[in-house]
Amino acid sequence: MNEQTKELPKACSDETAAAEFLERQRWGPDPYCPRCESRRVHQLRQRGNGARSKRFLWYCEICQRQFTVRIGTVLEDSRIALRHWCYAFWAACASKKGVSALQIHRMTGVSYKSALFLMHRIRFALADDPITPARMEGTIEVDEAYIGGKPRHKGPRSKRGMGTDKQPIIALLQRGGDVRAYVPVGVTARNIGRIIHENINPARARLITDESWAYTKIGRRFFGGHDTVNHGRKEYVRGDVTTNRVEGFFSLIKRGMYGTFHAVSRKHLHRYLAEFAYRYNTRKMNDGDRVTLAVKSAVGKRLRYREP
């Protein structure tokens, strides 16, 4: 058990321990001002007993302003106790299929509305940087899935979400690497092609998909080739040609949607996908390191209540 994992239980139950835990994860042994990045800072103490201020304030001698560990992160302007934030970060990172806002509400006592917004902030922190990430290389599995809703009729078309109110999602998984998941406007060759082009370098990649017509044209651009498995003919593996890994990622999402969240609006679905992708991409880390990385990922990000 590493040091972070040992500290988390106390940080989830004691406000001072929570503040110190978050400060260590963000600043390490050398704290600095989040506004001017000056190292000439010191803690503000209460008169008489010398204890830390109730808001765990710091003071910067350069910009002459007070600040806390919340400033410049998704925690900024939040009145939720830091110990509840620590618990929510821990639960989101340690629960393989996610944790619902209702569960956070039960365990911490904050209102359900506050717990829901708290979890959306954490999911926003776990998402990739808004700057376009480097394009993927190597062997890439791409597939789409449909979640939520109920089919309007039975038949072969409903299996792919056609004629239903299910929401399509698409995932790109690099073998031995990371996964990225998106909510396309619609499952068309143009929409899927745009997502693949933005995320994969065709000159240095090999594409593996199912037999869907949506991948036919885009697959011709890949220098490493485009291999397919025909699920319609019950073909799932042919040598190393398979989409089982990306479908395994989809199974985690579906189990989380059905068993943990039960219902997710289309408006916020991309945040839940970011949460599942973060846990998958950090699958080789222990819970303590995963929480530490999540806290560091929260720096420099803000999610306001009325933002999409």
TrEMBL record:
Stored Pfam families: DDE_Tnp_IS1595, Zn_ribbon_IS1595
InterPro entries for this protein: Tnp_ISXO2-like (IPR024445), Transposase_Zn_ribbon (IPR024442)
SMART domains found in the cross-reference section: DDE_Tnp_IS1595
Highest taxon, organism lineage: Bacteria
Domain ISXO2-like transposase positions: 135-281
Annotated protein name in UniProt: IS1595 family transposase
